[in-house]
Amino acid sequence: MTNLDQTTEEILRLAAEHFKVPRADLNATDDFFKKLGINSLQALDLLTRLEQHFRIELPDYELQGVTDFRALAERIQSRL
Amino acid sequence: MLDLRQYTCLGEALRAALDRWPDEVCLIEADRDREKARLTYGQFRETALPLAKALQDAGFRDGSRAAIIMTNQSKWLISAYAIFFCGGVLVPLDYKLTPREHLTLLAHSKAEVLITEHHIWRALSQSPESSSLLKAHTVLVTEAPANADLAGAKRWEDFRGSGEPTFVPRKRQVPACIVYSSGTTGRPKGCVLTHENYLEQCIALTSLYPFWPGVRYLSILPTNHAIDFMVGFIGPFVCGATVVHLRTLRPEYIRDAFVRYKITYMTVVPAILKALEQNLRKRFSELSPARRKMLNALIAVNRAFTRSKPRAALSRKLLGQVHAAFGGELRALFVGGAFTEPSTLQFFYDLGIPVANAYGCTEAGTAITVNDLNPFRADTVGKPLPGAELKILAPGEDGVGHVAVRSKTVMSHYLDDPEMTAETIVDGWLMSGDLGRIDASGHLQLFGRVKNMIVTEEGKNVYPEEIEAAFEGLPVKESCVFAANYIWPAREMVDEQLVLVIHLDPGKTITPALLDDIVSRNRRLLNYKRASGYLLWERDFPRTASMKLKRNELAQEMRGAATREAIVAL
Predict the structure, then answer these.
(1) Is B334 within 8 Å of B441 (Cβ atoms)?
(2) Other CB atoms closer than 10 Å to residue B381's CB: what's the count?
(3) Which chain B positions have a beta carbon within 8 Å of A79's beta carbon?
(4) B4-261: which CATH topology?
(5) Do B458 and A31 count as a contact with CB atoms less than 8 A apart?
(6) What percent of chain B has pLDDT over 70?
(7) Are B30 and B246 in contact (CB under 8 A)?
(8) Which percentage of chain B shows pLDDT scores above 90?
(9) B31-35, B347-351, B406-410: segment of lowest average pLDDT
(10) Distance CA B47, CA B144 (A)
(11) Closest listed residue to residue B377, CA positions, set B360, B399, B356
């Protein structure tokens, strides 16, 4: 069982890898739309990557209203 | 297809379609690689009628309003049909709005019934504003878990009346839907669209792009939007075609669906088209130099042979692998809702996948112009649809002016807002708010906007006035929000951004604390509603006697005194 900090860290690592940015540039409280310069479609793409990694299913609506990595980690954590 | 001239309302036309093609598949619903539902027109009718009966038993009658807040799925269309069967007025709301925005629009529309999904209802019923704003006497929720607290709602799946419901016909000129084109926080713009608006729009669109039994339309734009409601519901249904819904809209599942369901047509917004283009370009770049060369040669041959019109069979033969990735039966993609780069349109056309670029707005019923591909044009939004008249008001020397449209598809009015209706529909002409020119071949070209708004590449209309509430209470003298292209007219459809204009108290400067406050307020907005920068302004905002901001005047002052370079990025 991973805790929220570990989940957040994993998400940051995967997001950095997926969007090809240095991991050190990303923080848990960053607005990922802004920081990564992505639109909601690209954010959905990241969701798929996270589903594969955490082996869970995340409906698209889980991304609604979520803009930072920490909040995303909370949504994922509740499904682990 | 059905001859729509013989029907007076959507309920009647849909009822005739369900009787005409009982054994054809009307709906397929898939979630990732699982197919969740497949319904024939006959099964659709058997599911919808008990719902209509239960609605009638609950007091829902002709003219009653029912809102739907759902993602694209079979129950959306089944519910809509049940509402029309009862003679009701449908209020389709965008499922992506916040609970507060939903509640505001539900209250404005005076919907008596709300049909929604469980996760949306959970957020709505827990919202602090729900007790004051939610007036629906019946709330139906779909897919609620077995032990879920329904907070007063009923399960959609169990809400079934016994016995035959009574079909309630409606006149052509009465409202069929109230569709909100904006105004979630400020002044709601509820476009009242009549049965005639929809029937006429459907006749015009299917005359250019016909559907028939066997056609499969992939519905991914939200069905509450005028476009998908027409081409992802009414259009296919009155022609006996099939609508495919996906419960997830990630690009890879959209690509899978093309192949699995051999899609014929799909409508996209520019952002999705661009994502498809990027994926293809990436795959092309991974080819060996020799294969790349071969592909480029085939594309050149295809381009030469399709200059005057699309030749689907030839293109599929020449570029078989590309077409196989789209299922092999794709006839055209439609794109609208925002500006699309001509290079993207050309990219697909050269591959033998025509993209029909269209232009419209909710107020006009859906589409005003669409490209007919005879021949393909990447630089225009096409010609007016049959039955639509266009004129350019106050054109400059270059022929560019305000686009106005007159058509039987233009809405009746804005709900409960005669003042805004009178500003928008003048002597029977709808003022589009867009700048355009009609070229020698009758095609419309767009050159920006007359009004203070932006349209994102995902097709979202954003009115700056609606965002100002987020910055209320900032420790500054006054602030407001503008579309940058409204202050400095760009005469093009790109680079749309919102600017927060700040007038500080005398002697004050932007402190780190103030900046933090601005940034955090901005971040609480949905990503497409955020200001991309701020502009410091040193004079008092011009205001009316009742202290209302004189927006046009302020924009003029700023135009004269500052340039885009003065915007500080947020």
Answers:
(1) no
(2) 27
(3) none
(4) Rossmann fold (3.40.50)
(5) no
(6) 99
(7) yes
(8) 78
(9) B31-35
(10) 18
(11) B356
Residue partners of B429: CB distance under 8 A and separation at least 6: B391, B404, B405, B406
Name residues whose C-beta falls within 8 Å of residue B162's C-beta, 6 or more positions apart in sequence. Answer: B50, B53
d(CA B69, CA B81): 15
Q: What is the largest CA-CA distance in chain B?
A: 75
CATH 3.40.50.980 in chain B, residues?
4-261
Round to the nearest angstrom and report the end-to-end CA distance of chain A.
Answer: 8
Read off the pLDDT of residues B132-152 as tens digits, 9 standing for 90 and up: 899 999 999 999 999 999 999
Q: Between chains, do A59 and B248 touch, taking CB under 8 Å as contact? A: yes
| C-beta separation of B369 from B356 below 8 A | no
Task: Choose among A42, A48, A50, A39: nearest CA to B458.
Answer: A39
Q: Compare CB distances from A44 to B32, B71, B250 and report the shortest one's residue.
A: B250
CA nearest to B276 within chain A: A41
CA distance B187 to B475: 25
What's the full length of chain B, in residues? 570
Q: Which two tokens stand for residue A26?
A: 């990303």
B310's tokens: 């699309």
Cβ pair A41:B98 closer than 8 A? no
| Whether B275 contacts chain A with CB within 8 A | yes
Q: Does domain B463-569 have CATH number 3.20.20.70?
A: no
CATH number for the region A4-77 comes to: 1.10.1200.10
Q: Which of B433, B476, B426, B466 is nearest to B451 (CA)?
A: B433
Q: What is the pTM of this model?
A: 0.88
B472: Cα within 13 Å, side-chain hemisphere: 8
| Amino acid sitting at position B46 | E
Residue B461 carries which side chain, given as an amino acid letter?
N
Cα–Cα distance, A5 to A23 (Å, whole number): 15
CATH architecture classification, B269-449:
3-Layer(aba) Sandwich (3.40)
Could you tell me how far CA B11 lies from the centroid of its own chain?
22
ipTM: 0.78
